[in-house]
Design goal:
two-stranded antiparallel sheet; YaeB-like; 167 residues; mainly beta; YaeB-like_sf; Elongation Factor Tu (Ef-tu), domain 3; 6-stranded antiparallel barrel; 2% helix
């Protein structure tokens, strides 16, 4: 059984609720962001005791999947992200080499069948442990006048800067 134990002042235990089955077997195969590569399909296979939790999720177009970067073998406080030659603080980048190795992705729901949630906009490696799934709600999750720090200079007019970077 996979679980995460975190200690600060209290102990936090998170249990794996499922696993991601992805076409990406190696870290270098994964696109930088799943929304850049919409043709790959993956699925979350939930443990049986969580299947009822999928009820009504099929009424949403997108979901947020929280997962554990189980292939990340280091922790850094600063890192050099794609598009940059300089380091930024770990909380200003999306590196998997985080203090708690927690990742999240917004995915496009294709369909749900039994204990499986099928989706596109995949950016997780095969075998990734799933910690939680939430519906993406445009009324709650979208923001106006967003400033994206150091990334804004790379995304002129909202365009992807270099298609070669998205794998």
């Amino acid at each position: 059984m996979f679980y995460v134990v975190l200690e600060f002042m209290n102990k936090i235990i998170m249990h794996q609720i499922g696993i991601i089955h992805s076409p990406y077997r190696e870290k270098n195969d994964i696109p930088i962001q799943g929304r850049f590569k919409d043709n790959a399909e993956a699925w979350v296979e939930l443990k049986e005791k969580y299947v009822k939790g999928l009820k009504d999720l099929d009424k949403f177009s997108h979901a947020i999947i929280l997962y554990y970067f189980h292939k990340s073998d280091k922790e850094t406080i600063e890192g050099k992200p794609f598009l940059e030659e300089v380091e930024h603080g770990i909380f200003a980048i999306r590196s998997p080499n985080r203090p708690n190795h927690i990742g999240f992705s917004v995915v496009k729901i294709k369909h749900i069948k039994e204990n499986k949630l099928y989706f596109t906009q995949v950016d997780m490696i095969d075998g990734t442990p799933v910690l939680d799934i939430k519906p993406y709600v445009k009324y709650f999750d979208s923001r106006e006048n967003v400033v994206s720090g150091w990334l804004d200079k790379h995304f002129k007019n909202g365009k992807i800067p270099d298609k070669n970077l998205i794998r």
